[in-house]
Amino acid sequence: MESPASVRQALQARISSMQSTRLDEDAFPVLPIMRGVLGRGLRRGVVYSISGSTSLALALVAAASQSGEWCGVLDVPDLGLEAAAGWGIDLDRLVWVADPGDRWMSTVGSMADVLGLVIVRAPTRVTSAEASRLVARLRQTRSTMLVLGEWPQSESQIRVVSSSWTGLGDGHGHLADRHLELEVRQGQGGGAPRRSRLRVPAAAIP
Amino acid sequence: MNSSAARVLVVWLPDWPITAARRNLELPVDQPLALIHKGVVFACSSDARASGAQRGLAVREAQLRCPQLLVVAYDPQTDARAFEPVVASLEELVPGVRILRPGLCAIRARGPARFYGGEERAASTIHEAMAKADIAARLGIADSVFGAERAALKTSDSAPVSIVEPGTTRQFLASAPISTLDDSTLVPVLRRLGLHSLGDFAALDQVAVGARFGEAGLRAHARASATDRLSGAEHTPEADFGADVAFEPALDRVDQIAFGVRTASESMIDRLAEGGLVCTALRITVTSESGERRERSWSHPHHFSAADVVDRVRWQLQGSGGATAGPASPVERIELSPARVDASANHESGLWGTSLDERVHHALARLHSVLGHGAVSTPTLGGGRFLSERQVLVAWGDETPPSKRTLPWPGSIPPPAPATVFAEPRPADVRGSLGEPIDVDARGTTNSTPAWLSLDRSPALKISSWAGPWSVTQRWWDSETRRSAHRFQMIDSEGMAWLMILEDHEWAAEARYD
């Protein structure tokens, strides 16, 4: 016998999966080298969770920023601006909130209202109810949130499995190209993870 | 040409920069003072001159000659600001004042001469009235602006008015040396051509001078031959758009104060709008009950609306404390003054508007009110050898400081740029294969091969590859900002790449290539 809670959870999962398929056509563009990872681009109104790499988040946002979209960075005070500019993010349309204090939820909400894409660090504690309220708000404002770290209700999870570099030797050279092996899990709960490889050239602007 | 129509009266205030600086700094009159511009004396007071200081002298030399000399940097803005009230008092006597430069202004002589009954009477009336206002003016009247200026310069304390009779200005100027033209490019050339006085230069054909020296030459020729006329706009007193709100009794709650300034800011913006103007920068001065004055300038990405002005007052009172913060002591008075205005025609929105950008501005202004000023910022790239110096955050709506990015920065790190730059370097420990601490000697070589890396006292990871040290030594002449460090790139056994820095024998992680 299934408990009412699990039935409700299953139903909610089905509703959200049906809702997400409807929005499929319309997405933020991604850079050509990222098409191997997210073929159809970044979907609007959903949450992506990215673990193990900040560069990956910057790379995903870059093409949308170039096409005129406003982007935001919340609670990632250590983000490298030069790397962001190197990927092609337009810093004039980048809004930076370093420390939201204890108003994380309301800040991310008001940023999502006006900004197309928001990169956030995963908050230390977020309840499932708050998460679904935020996801609903994102769906309404059609902006996308990229969470650095784990997020309970993410549309896609992109995880770095392994990372290797060329150019650095034993006491000589300097970092050049990077090879990433990624595990992409599309959709909530369902779907087998897909592996994909990504080569990031030293001069990040493709 | 009717010569009486062209007569010009010049009012000259001797040592104006000194007088202006004295008034601005509220210095006593007997304090010898010198204003410094580009390392040399630009102007000095009469008592400093008496002890041997003079224009063009090096600062040290002037201080040596006059030990009690007070040295202040020259500020043209102070000059111009302090001259405004003088011009205002002059305008009460005669209309149509044109400012040639701070301390020197010109008026058409015909009107005052008729009104006061003669040029001499007009000049002495102006001199007496200015003297009553404690301003020592010297006056010159001649056929041309330059002639009148020279005449004014020739006056003395005992004979403060000098009048060159109509039609004789050219002869009056003829004997003056060519250097009085005060044109550092033209004067040496004219000297080499054998022209040593203004008369020599004025004797040349005007067309030939124009062909050889162009526009600047023609201007100088007109001055030498007493044919330069008054031109340019008359001084018009600037309309005062500022607003002033006093609270009696003093208020200490931000929302009360914000409510109090609302009407004043609305009327200020309305008055500007009536004049076809918008305000793009604003200065807010808050005076508290304890007498403390806090002034801050605010600029706006577009232009200020009344609500924006109230927001800025709120932010200034809150400081960086967020919605719950308030002023330290009750506020007695708030002055709003537009620091920069612009014609509203330049700020009309297009037919289809800039709705998205405006929406963003609104939302961010609201966020600013909640989180406190400075919490929302726009990032720009700065210049520097160290990565954290290259990240510059400017509070939303403030002006971006000029970037030093385009300068060459030898010793900066080659691309790719790290995606994580620690605002505060994270302490780390790097050891060799035998556990010995790694250090760099004076010759820039490591004592051993780095083998183990540990950050924030976490368990050490094996270093799979590394490069360095890349030494950076900067500003050794400046004890505050001087830094000397060695940098390394390292990859740990988990495949994470780090930019490590060794400074004063302490290891830290400057950035992470993640």
From TrEMBL, chain B:
Cite the entry's keywords alphabetically.
DNA damage
Q: Does the keyword DNA damage apply?
A: yes
User: Which residue range or ranges hold the UmuC domain?
Assistant: 30-100
Q: Which domain of life is it from?
A: Bacteria
- Leader sequence residues: none
* Pfam families per the UniProt record, alphabetical: IMS (PF00817)
Name used for this protein in its record: UmuC domain-containing protein
Q: From which organism does this entry originate?
A: Agreia bicolorata
